[in-house]
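[recover] target loaded
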C-alpha cells in the first residue's frame, strides 16, 4: 500500500470512529491527479517513495546468466542512498555505489559508469530501461 493509500485509510478510520462516538465530521475531498495522460494509463507521477524501493533485491540479467543480491538502504549519503552488494555475478551491478528514486523508478549509481535506470513494473518488480536487467524482491531468509 502506498503512503497516499495509507493516509486515505487512516482518515477514513478516524472519521468513522468520530461518527460512532456521536461526533460530526465534514466530508473532505481527496486530492486526485488530474493529468489526463496519467489517469488514462493508470500511471503515477513523481518520484517513488524511499519505502517503496528500499530493501533486499535480486538482480538478474535477462539474457545470459548471473544474479546479484543487493540491499538498497534508507541511509542518505549526499544526494543518494546507500547500497550493499553481495553475492554478485552481474558485472554491471558489482560496482554499485548508491541509489536514488526517480519518476516511476530509481537509478542504481555505479563507480566509473553511467547509472542503471529502473522503472517499476509491479509492487515487487523493476526492470532496467534498456530491458537488460530485472529486479525482484529477494526473500529475507
Amino acid at each position: 500500500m502506498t503512503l497516499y493509500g495509507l493516509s486515505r485509510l487512516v482518515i477514513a478510520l478516524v472519521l468513522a470512529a468520530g461518527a460512532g462516538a456521536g461526533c460530526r465530521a465534514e466530508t473532505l475531498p481527496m486530492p486526485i491527479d488530474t493529468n489526463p495522460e496519467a489517469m488514462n494509463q493508470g500511471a503515477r507521477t513523481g518520484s517513488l517513495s524511499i519505502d517503496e524501493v528500499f530493501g533486499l533485491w535480486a538482480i538478474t540479467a535477462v539474457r545470459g546468466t548471473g544474479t546479484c543480491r543487493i540491499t538498497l538502504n534508507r541511509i542518505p549519503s549526499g544526494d543518494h542512498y546507500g547500497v550493499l552488494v553481495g553475492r554478485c555475478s552481474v558485472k554491471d551491478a558489482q560496482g554499485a555505489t548508491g541509489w536514488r528514486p526517480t519518476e516511476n523508478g530509481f537509478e542504481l549509481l555505479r563507480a566509473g559508469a553511467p547509472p542503471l535506470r529502473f522503472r517499476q513494473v509491479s509492487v515487487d518488480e523493476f526492470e532496467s530501461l534498456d530491458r537488460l536487467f530485472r529486479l525482484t524482491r529477494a526473500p529475507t531468509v
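[recover] notes: Strands lie at 55-61, 67-77, 80-88, 96-102, 105-110, 113-122, 125-128, 133-137.
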